[in-house]
Queue: 2 jobs
Job 1
Amino acid sequence: MTSNNDTESSNSAQENISNDDKINQEDIEILFMKNYNEDQIEKRLLFLEQLQKKIEKETKELQYKSKLLQANNNIEKENNNDMDIEIENDSEASSDQLEILNPEDNKPIEFSLVTSDSFAEPNNDNLLLSSEADFIDIKNEESISNTTKRKKSKASTVKTKPTKKASRKKKNNDDDMEDFADTNEKPRRSKKSSETSKTKDKSKINNLFTPADKFKRIKESIDIPEICNLSSLYPDEYWKNNADNGEMINFINEECPLELVKEANIQDYSQIVGLVLSPDGEMLATFSTIGTAKIWDVETFDLIQTLRDADEEQIDEFFVGRFTPSMEHMIIAGKLKDRKKWSSEDDDNHILPCPLKIFDVVSGKVVSRLEGHAEEVLCIKNICYKGENYYVTTSQDGYIIKWKMKNNSWTELDSYTKMFDGITCMAFTISFLPNTGNRYFVAATDGDISIFDFESAQIIQRFVTPYSHYCDCVKIVDCLELPKPEFIWGQNDELPTKDSPMFCYFITRGVEVLDADDDTVPSKPNKCHLEKLIYPASEHDPFKIEDINSFQDENYHSNSWLIKVTSNGRYIVAPTYDGKLFIFNLKTGKLTGILHYHDGVEVRDVAFHPYKPLLFSCSDDGNVKVFSTAKK
């Protein structure tokens, strides 16, 4: 009897279901037919929310650009009275613009999946967030979910990262390396405000890289014969791979276009912030923000090993790493966060002191930890100096540390030394100067470029850059089509002179202050710069910097956190925050091509393979894209 009553009430409830409820029920059934579960529905909702924010942001940007165009049109109307002069000026401007944008064939090459001469935008199959099918694959969905959560980093990371540094008070307003007092607590210099930055820009128009006015240069004599001998005994080879070796990507143009290597399925479940090749070029390591480093076979693109610290109780994020020369170990670092403590200042879990972890590549176990940095580790180099092994690291805590390893090993720490600086708030990337036996290196520090003496562990010179916010990338490059020094330290019997000095080239990348009203539009166009670093010709001479070229385009937007560049000696590949890679001719500075295969988010790192015709790029979309010279 009770059973019949229950059945009747159930049937009655079914009859009372509204049409809307039936439609909702059908939608839910469809979702589950597409392999959705409760977590995936939440991720889908999160994606739609983020997509709406993206649409709103792009709308604001278009409105902003529309206002600029309207202002330009008004100016043109006011100047119509002088028609002859206007036509002449327009003709010259148009010619200049074409010369910059179209170096070879009146059209920049925007590479696509099929051909290099297509200027069409990528279709929906290439846009990971535009197709419903992308949400059916669980792996893709995990990647997209993590990506959308950090989508705002284009603007917010640029703004919030330096804020933490600016909040620290320096001990003395006039402490900019005046006395180089050795104290336990390093004085800090507050970050540049947008007002002071814009004022300084006017004085840098003619001379982009200038000596820092308030910085007192260390009066260190340079024993040039000793450095030449050091360079001869310990020649450096790690920076010399270039397009002339006949194996890596050489020319990039319509006759030698790049194409996507479709069989390369390299990905992780979160942002891939960095990548590095093994010394023999056979393996590629990727570093993600979920605390994993994956090692891939470069020939087959198969996953070889996944490195993860299973014993770590806190939250790991991996940014950078390096193989040891024997490739038996990898040193990896990034950010370590407190699992149970929140930081309102960072809007993230509280940052703990960030160790460097040395992994056994075969077993995947952590065999050693190097403790010394208080915040995120942003760059790692492994070098030999006078026959001894060292790691060199930079960090957002402002310190550059050299780690001396025991008994020519790469796993046992002997001692570590913090580079004597005194003013740097954030130390980004470093690059060792060629033909100095690893004695000197150049570093991106705050908004400046600094030169350090590795042996004495101290800064010796500092140069102001043209960037209004900070310079986060510096890289020594071998420019194949630009002049070489006549005399090279350690390679020639004769020493360089002031008329014929030793020099090298390097590239910098910078971030600009964001627009005060919108906080998304940079106050200045983004650029990279090519500089010549002129070595001292006598023991008391300083290093000098000479401006060579700049790389820019109206669509080149790179105003984000930790975006690195690469070069093969002929071109510079410069990633952006909106998923593209701009390829510039290193000699002319003109745009050669654009790669647009990452989904509108930051492309963090990029690298040419030293002896294969391959180019790798990694992004916040959790993917590594591999490009190769197209076969015709």
Job 2
Amino acid sequence: MIPLRLIINNFRAIEHADIDLSAVTLAAIAGRNGAGKSSAFTLAPRFALFGDVIKGISMDDLVRRGAQEMAITFEFEHQGSIYRVIRTRSTKGKGKSTLELQQQVNSQWESRSAEKIADTEAKIRALLNLDDETFTASSMILQGQANAFTGATAGKRKEILSQILGLNVYEQLQERARQRAGLLDIEIEKAKDRLLVLDERVEAHPRKMEELRTLESRYGFTQAKVAEDERAVRETEAQLAVLEVKRSRILQIDRDTATIDDEIEVLQKERSSHTERLERAEKILANEEGILAKATELEEVKQQIAALEARQPEVERLQRDLAAAETDLKQLADELARLNERVLVVTQQLSGRDALQKQAADHEQETVRLREFEAKAERWNLLAAELQTLDTQLDRETFRIETENRALVDKISTLEEQETHIHDSGCLPTCKFQQAAAAAVAELPELRRRLADLDRSQIAALTLSIAQKQIEQKDIGYDPDTHRACRNRVAELQASATAFAQLAGKDELLQQLEQQCAEKLARQESTTARRDDLQQQSADLEAELAPLPELTARAGDLQRWARFKDEIGAAREAAANAKERIAAIDQEIAGKQTRKEDLENEKNSLVIDTLEYDTLRRELDRSLAVLQDRRRQLAALAEQIGGIKAVLAALEADQLERDQLAADLEPKALRWTRYQTLIKAFGRDGIPALIIENAVPQLERIANEILGQMSKGKHYIRFETQRELKSRDGIAETLDIMIGDWTAERPYETFSGGEQLRIDYAIRFALAELLAQRAGSKVEWLTIDEGLGSQDAEHRALVLESIKSVSSRFKRVLVITHIEDAQAAFDQVIRFENSDGGVGVQVA
């Protein structure tokens, strides 16, 4: 796999970057810290290919702050074809992600995506034959991880190698084989226990067959007895049915007799009601003359009440007029009080006229002074603003000169150090690093001249202008404290000046108020006289209406007698009807008494006929009890027969189950034996040990090729996978690193820092290449992230030479570094530069 192009939008700190890698072979990645170098070349390709690859960080946190949508496009060549992966993430709403896999066919992009993102990611892993962990290990040396393998203990190295080779899968396979063997073992033991139980059960089959024949014989005898008892019960039930009809007739007669009694009772109550009505009608007819006299007297009283009630509206009118007069008097009193208060206030205001006039004159004089102060303040503020502008220009110019001076001094210092390094390094003149340093040192005379010729004339001109403006400001003679005191004095006198201006119409207002007071007093006297007249009229009318309550009470008493006048005619008719209805009721009661006697005679005859009913009922109950007992016996026998048949069916099923278990037991035992073999094969001493033993020589070979290129054949690597125990007999599993030269072999830990660094990179490059080969997908791309920052100048040069010496094994080698002399060692440099809040990328 070879990267060709990377387009980044709103990913972490990068707003936009378009990186063309098609012409890059060996290049340094340069730019300030935080510009996004690591994000672009280590995280962005992994995120595009494999998705959520950063532990502890959600996909939404990868979107640049302030943006809502992110996109990464990664183009690469793989196995002779060109592919493109486009992954996006939006934080709008609930969030949305997309993933597209495309292949270039005849200069056109054709989709190779699946419907779901997870399925498309599976296609990418199948295409590359890599997951994120293997991809990262084979194509990237992340910051601080160059000696992650060599710096570990011997035992830890073997564990890391096992993880890199993916041998932990055999632990999972062994566990799965052990689980399945355990399940099979449980099934086999259960089957054996089950066979013992089934053997005991099937032995009872002959005995159960004999029990079944005995129960079937008893069942036939009991069934015949049940039929005989059922015939006797039916005969007794027929006799009882006849007697039941007669008993039902007796009950019906009792109900009819009770109904006749109820009807006679109702007729007797109706007769009592008609008797009471007859007595009331006869009383009204006896007092007819007195009732007519009381009705006449009621009419006379009603006429007197109507005459007096006609005067009642006049009383209400007088009361309303009297209430209105009282309201007017109260309103006039309130208005007079308010007018008197206003007269008093105006009189007091006119008494202080001279003092207000003096304060108004002082207010006018202070207002003139305030205008003069404000004119001076405006000129003062304009000059202050100009001084502030000049100070800002002076600071900006001073900062520019100091910045340019500091940059020139720093660059001169750096070039002087490189000049010293040229004489001390011992490198050949043809070395690219030596040539770059010589070219930089050639700039020193020009930089020193530019430092001496820095133009500081603008600073002097700005300083002179500031001094002149300060003199002009002082000549104005403006005092802020005096200005503030004058403004406060004008505010204090403002109220008095306003009050004096308002005194001009106060004399005329006082005359108007006094005239209104006189008018209100005249109206008050007139309203008082009218109120007294209304009070007298109201008293006279109340005396005339005094008899009205007594007449109203008398009318109520007479009204009770007047009602009887209208009932005299109805009373005559009611008396005649009551007498006629009472005679009819007496005749109807006599007929019902006769009917009741006939029913009682019929009942006595039926009672004699049903005397044998109880005897037959008891006989039937005994027969039913016997029949029910025989039926229970029959049901019990049927249940026993069904139970034995069920047991026999279960025994037959047990026989079939036993035969099946016996047939299945042998193949399960064979499978259990095979799983035991797999458990041993997947163990540490099985297939994983063979893989490590085969991988170590391959790792040695690749590492020695790379280390030979780095050390020019001086050193070689040998891995020891086993070591004899010192405390007792035996062999310990280990992974020691032995480094040999022309003299002898020594452990890796005994070498110097620079030599260890070359060994670290050699083994790290070898691990990456081994991992890619074992995955069946060669990654011809290597990214080294900040692998130089912790090294001094001497070791840094060794690392750079080591990287260059192995660069031919990869199609793309990218080294992320912020060190300028390291950047100068590469023919190609990819620079990250700030541009409008984003990152501009230049590939040179």
